[in-house]
TrEMBL record:
Keyword Metal-binding: no
Protein name per the record: Aldehyde dehydrogenase
PANTHER family registered for this protein in UniProt: SUCCINATE-SEMIALDEHYDE DEHYDROGENASE, MITOCHONDRIAL (PTHR43353:SF5)
Residue numbers annotated as active site: E250
Amino acid sequence: MSSQQPVYQNYINGTFESASEHLEVLNPATGETLSRVPESRGEDVERALAAARGAQKAWAARPAVERAAYLRQIAAKIREDVPRLARIITQEQGKVTALAETEVNFTADYLDYMAEWARRIEGEIIESDRPNENIFLFRKPLGVVAGILPWNFPFFLIARKMAPALVTGNTIVIKPSEETPNNCFEFARLLDTVGLPAGVFNVVSGSGATTGNALTASPEVDMISFTGSVTTGSRIMTSAADNITKLNLELGGKAPAIVLDDADIGQAVRAIRGSRIINSGQVCNCAERVYVQRGVADEFIERMAKAMGATTYGDPLAQPDVEMGPLINQAGLDKVGAMVKTALADGAELVTGGGLGDQPRGYHYQPTVLTGCRQDMQIMRQEVFGPVLPIQVVEDMDEAIALANDSDYGLTSSIYTRNLASAMRACREIDYGETYINRENFEAMQGFHAGVRKSGIGGADGKHGLYEYTHSHVVYLET
C-alpha cells in the first residue's frame, strides 16, 4: 500500500482517534486497496456512546433553530466540495460519477430540508373529559441514536439518519459499511470544521460482527436506525431485544413492475431499464421483476433487451462515459451469477447478457434480461441486487396484482398504464409501502419511504420520518 493511501481515524467526542486494528477498503472496479479504516472494538463503541450520551441533554436544550443552523452549515460545506466527495464515493462504491455527484448534492439538499423542520415540530392539545384540565402532547428526543449505514448510497444515508436525529434533539453514533467507510470519514472531517458541539456526532467503523454488535446490543442506545439486508436486520432485532431498543429498519425489496397493454412502452422501458442499471442494480427500491401483459409482451421484451444490451459499463473513473459501474464485491458478483444460472436451469430463457463483464479487472456483470420466468423461481422471489431483469408474462391486471403482492417483501412497486381507473385500482390493491405510476422508482425527501412485511419497520423522510426520532410525552394538567 502506497503512502498516498489514507489511514482514517474514528471520530469520537469531537476528536479523531487512532485505532490499533484496521480493515482495508477496496475499489470494486479495480480490486486495488484505497485506504485503511478502524476495526473498532467494544471499548471504542462505548466511548462513542458515552460521548453521545454526555452531549445529548445540552444539545436538546438548545432551540431547534440553533440545531438546524449546524445542518445548514454542513450542507454549505458539502456544496463547496462536490467533485472530490463524489470521486471518493465512486472509488469505494463503484457508482458512475454523475450519480455520485447527484448523491452528494442531494445530501446537502436533504440537510437543508430537515433543517426547515426546526420551526415545524408540533405537539397537540387534546380535549379533556374533566373541567379545568388540559392535556398536552409534547414530542421529545429519544436520546442516543445508532445509525448503521449500507454501502449502496453511503453518503446520503449519513444525512438521512443524522439530520432528523439532530434537529429533534438527539445525538448520534454512525457506523458506516465496512465496504464504503471513506466517504463517512470525509463527512466527519468536513463536519469538524463547523463547530458542532463535541459528542453530538460520532463515527466508529468496523465489521458488523464486532462494531455493529457492540452498538446494537448496548443499553446506551435509545434507537437503532439501520438500512441493509433482511438477514442483518433480523440479527439486529435479536441483538436489540434484551434492551427493547426502538428499531427503524429499511430492509430489502423485490419491487414488482406491472406493464399493462395500454402502457406507454417507451416510457416503461426507459424507467425499468433505469432501475436495473442505476448503481448497477444495487438499489432496494428499484424494479426487480416485471409482469407484462401478453398483448404488449413481445414489444416490451424486444425493446428492453435492446436497451439493456446497449448499456455501457466499466470503471467509472477510467471510462467517464459508462452508464454502469461494477458490483460492490466478489460475493455480490458470485450471488448474481449464481441466481442467473439457477433461473436458466429452472427454465428461464436468456435474451441478453448472462455472464461476467468483459472488463480486465473488477466485479462487473453484464446487463441481463430473462424471459419465461415463473413466480416459483428464485429469481422472481429473492432480491438479486444486480443488473438482471426477470420478466413474466401475465394475462390481465388481476393476475399481475396477485403475483406482485405474493412476496415476502413490500418496499416499492410500480405500474405503467394510461388508464386512470387502472392506476387508482393499483393504489387500492397493491400492498407496498410505495407505488410509482408511470415513472421511475425513486422517492422524494418530503414523502415517506417505508415498507411492509420483511422490507422493514418504520420509515424515513418527510414529517413522518422526522417523528420517528421522537417519543410522545403526554401531560395532564389540572388548574
